[in-house]
Specification:
The chain has about 675 residues and is of the alpha/beta class. It folds into 3 domains: about 240 residues, 3-Layer(aba) Sandwich (Rossmann fold), CATH 3.40.50; about 200 residues, Dimethylsulfoxide Reductase, domain 2 (3-Layer(aba) Sandwich), CATH 3.40.228; about 120 residues, Barwin-like endoglucanases. Helix content is about 30%, strand content about 15%. The strands form 7 sheets. Strands 22-24-23-26-21-25 form a 6-stranded mixed beta sheet. It has a 5-stranded mixed beta sheet with strand order 4-16-15-14-5, with helices on one face. A hairpin with a 6-residue loop joins strand 17 and strand 18. The longest helix has 19 residues. The radius of gyration is 25 Å and the shape is globular. Bound molecules: ligand MGD (2 copies), iron/sulfur cluster and molybdenum atom (MO). The site of iron/sulfur cluster has 12 residues, from loops.
């Protein structure tokens, strides 16, 4: 008899869907979105609707595999778990003896969003070891810094409320590609007459479906936001009552934005001055107006400032007062779980007598190649594929190739990173292990139990680090915690948003709304994060300068590399997770160009081109389709480098330069040149 079991999509996606898995004879045969979940609403995105192909792929890793031969070609031979774990522990001991524990570096991100397998037993293990800590900046840290600066708290408008909006701005947010469960709410609003505008350098799937597309130049959003404030304040379109009661510094802001005329912003953004003024007026007049800000705008050099500037707009218009107003970037901060209890950072003191050093994951290339004290001598990679996704790929790969670097990789598939492993360990998928999930695009906490058994000898990250702790002789009881113990620890939090949510309740309901008022209007009455509860404009630090790598940046660099490259997410990919799929591979091998740039270079659609700058190069197929404006190029990400000729993807072009705050990557501030390589015969 087929059974239907609940689960949760663990991918790094704001929607964190609730799943219904049909299981027959221990095998999953169908995956659907749970119709009862208020955000999932019974459907899945295209990539996960086909997840069972990945789940049962013959390419899944099944056994522990030490490498044979050189790093890179990826040849491995099977051993037992005992042999593999003993070998890792022995090597760790030798490295600790010679270099100290900080020579060991974990490298992980959000291959799974499940809290236990993302930041559970692994954190305990590395803290107890005294390993270097990883600053997990690769995605959202600039945006988090900017949002905190603006609001003091990272709360957001609930997705369900977008159905009540009259004007919705998708600002650096490819909703139809990267958070599709917001779309039905937007459609509902539009059916009732709402307008939907997109602010994005390329005409993506979402822009193509919008009422209007503002094709802004990359990295210039702060200029647009400042000019919108110029109009809103100058024409007295702001909510004077809300501003007086719940904000601080309007006079300073008025002064600050006086010089930010739409004409000035027009030059920097590539938009028309009238267009900018019109957008500001419409935004201020619409009640309610909601902004879906996503992480696209903060992957540029001053990305934190850009998020901050945009996030001040709803405070100015008082839009937080309305159901369907405000702004949605991330909801994750509201999940006040006992993360310290899960991760046990105090174990570092036991190992080192202090906090371990912190290494920024965006600078992995630098960390592996520069002499530091101690040098990084061991790398443990899980939930991530740095050989594909980290910037400055040539540096990353030359680091991974180091003979004296001991690399352990926990993976489901043989990624590029896995090819450089000394020991490759088979990992379970979210359908195969227990985990607890918060979300960054809604306010539901969810529990998933294994729906199917793991293939071969694959193990959850939790189990691998538990076993390694045993091998290292760690005797603290926390290393014997079960998954349920860890979930109970997480739920042991006094915060009113989660107080009283129990494992038993989660077991019954699978998905539990945080204890929030319904509707949740986080800043309707102020209650911003500052001690006085106000939104502080502190305009003296609010300003715009173009990224060094942009058309208004370093002129001599631009003379050599005249195109601004963005490499946003592909609609049917999830970073590099689906890089094995042929259609994804084909479409992440494309660079979109404007005619005005392609023609003088003799480039036509389908031509093979080389994209290059001082950091490296990669080979791509041109698509001359004017989805970007002149001077901009767009290469959807993230391809598996080993599927590309020359084994490089666009991250061979991106730099390790960090954002203005938060230590984030600047993937979308990247100047390149493109040249014709050859024309495939048709
Ligand atoms: N299909 C799919 N879904 C995903 C992912 C995926 O790879 N594929 N990845 C997941 C992850 S890890 C994340 S972090 C989220 C990210 O979700 P998003 O933030 O929505 O994704 P991005 O593609 O980074 O950026 C969104 C849009 O910002 C635009 N953009 C780039 N530079 C600028 C700029 O300077 N200004 C403005 N206004 N817009 C700009 C891009 O063209 C893109 O259309 O999506 C998640 N969901
Ligand atoms: N050029 C460019 N580069 C980018 C971006 C971009 O927009 N452009 N986006 C950046 C962003 S926003 C992000 S978040 C990063 C994402 O970078 P990563 O976090 O590295 O994400 P993925 O490429 O999806 O790789 C996740 C890996 O984890 C594995 N995995 C999944 N579940 C588990 C598990 O339970 N256990 C173990 N051991 N492994 C598991 C998957 O098989 C997959 O190979 O990429 C960044 N890189
Ligand atoms: S990737 Fe996102 S939209 Fe797709 S199923 Fe998972 S959570 Fe839902
Ligand atoms: Mo991300």
């Amino acid at each position: 008899m087929p059974q239907t079991l609940p689960s949760v999509c663990a991918l790094d996606c704001p929607d964190c869907c609730s799943l219904a898995v049909t299981v027959e004879n221990g095998r999953a045969t169908k995956l659907r979105g749970d119709p009862r979940h208020p955000v999932t609403r019974g459907f899945l995105c295209g990539k996960v609707a086909q997840y069972l192909e990945r789940e049962y792929s013959p390419a899944r890793l099944l056994h522990p595999l030490p490498r044979v031969g050189l790093k890179g070609p990826g040849r491995f031979e099977r051993v037992s778990w005992d042999e593999a774990l003993d070998a890792i522990a022995a090597r760790f001991r030798a490295i600790i003896k010679e270099f100290g524990p900080e020579a060991i570096l974990p490298y992980s991100y959000a291959g799974t969003m499940g809290l236990l397998n993302n930041a559970g037993m692994d954190r305990r293990f590395f803290h107890r070891l005294g390993a270097s800590r990883l600053d997990r900046t690769i995605c959202s840290s600039a945006g988090a810094a900017g949002l905190t600066d603006a609001l003091g708290l990272r709360y957001a408008t609930e997705p369900e409320q977008f159905r009540h909006s009259r004007l919705i701005l998708a600002w650096g947010a490819n909703i139809l590609g990267t958070s599709v469960h917001l779309w039905p709410f937007i459609m509902e609003a539009r059916r009732q007459g709402a307008k939907f505008y997109v602010i994005d350098p390329r005409r993506n799937r979402t822009a193509a479906a919008a009422d209007r597309h503002y094709a802004i130049q990359p990295g210039s959003d702060t200029a647009l936001a400042l000019a919108m404030m110029h109009v809103i304040i100058g024409e007295k379109l702001y909510d004077a009552d809300y501003v007086a009661r719940h904000t601080e510094g309007i006079e300073g802001l008025r002064e600050r934005v006086r010089e930010w005329t739409p004409y000035r912003a027009a030059e920097l953004t590539g938009l028309g001055a009238q267009e900018i003024a019109g957008l500001a007026r419409e935004y201020a007049a619409a009640r309610p107006a909601a902004i879906r800000l996503n992480y696209g705008i903060q992957r540029s050099e001053r990305g934190a400032m850009a998020v901050r500037a945009v996030a001040l707009l709803p405070a100015l218009t008082g839009s937080w007062k309305h159901i369907g107003g405000g702004l949605l970037l991330s909801t994750s901060q509201a999940f006040y779980l006992n993360r310290a209890g899960l991760e046990l950072p105090d174990l570092q003191r036991k190992a080192l007598g202090r906090e371990a050093r912190l290494i920024n994951m965006t600078e992995l290339g630098g960390a592996l190649n520069t002499v530091s004290r101690p040098p990084v001598m061991a790398l443990v990679v899980y939930n991530s594929n740095p050989a594909a996704i980290a910037p400055n790929q040539n540096a990353v790969v030359s680091g991974l190739r180091r003979d004296d670097l001991f690399t352990v990789v926990l993976e489901q598939f043989q990624t590029d990173t896995a090819d450089y492993a000394d020991i490759l360990l088979p990992a379970t998928t979210f359908l195969e292990h227990t985990d607890l999930y918060l979300a960054y695009g809604h306010y539901y906490l969810q529990l998933a139990r294994p729906a199917v058994p793991p293939p071969g000898e694959a193990k959850p990250n939790v189990e691998v680090f538990r076993l390694l702790a045993g091998r290292m002789g760690f005797e603290e009881p926390c290393f014997r915690d079960t998954e349920d113990d860890m979930i109970r620890t997480l739920l042991d939090s006094p915060h009113p948003f989660v107080a009283g949510i129990t494992l038993e309740e989660l077991e019954r309901s699978h998905s539990v709304r945080l204890r929030l008022p319904d509707p949740f209007l986080p800043f309707a009455e102020g209650s911003f994060g500052a001690p006085d509860g106000k939104c502080h404009f502190h305009a003296e630090t609010l300003d715009y300068a173009p990224p060094v790598e942009s058309r208004h940046g370093d002129a001599s660099l631009r003379a050599r590399y005249p195109l601004e490259l963005i490499s946003p997410k592909h609609n049917d990919a999830l970073n590099s997770t689906f890089g094995r799929r042929d259609p994804v591979d084909r479409e992440t091998a494309i660079i979109h160009l404007n005619h005005a740039d392609a023609e003088p270079r003799g480039i036509r659609t389908a031509d093979h081109v080389r994209a290059f700058n001082d950091r490296g190069s990669c080979l791509l197929a041109a698509e001359v389709d004017d989805t970007v404006r002149p001077g901009v190029a767009c290469a959807p990400s993230v391809r598996w480098p080993k599927r590309a000729p020359g084994r490089r993807n666009v991250n061979a072009l991106t730099s390790e330069r960090l954002t203005d705050a938060g230590g984030g990557p600047t993937f979308y501030s990247c100047l390149i040149e493109v040249e014709l390589m050859d024309r495939p015969r048709s």
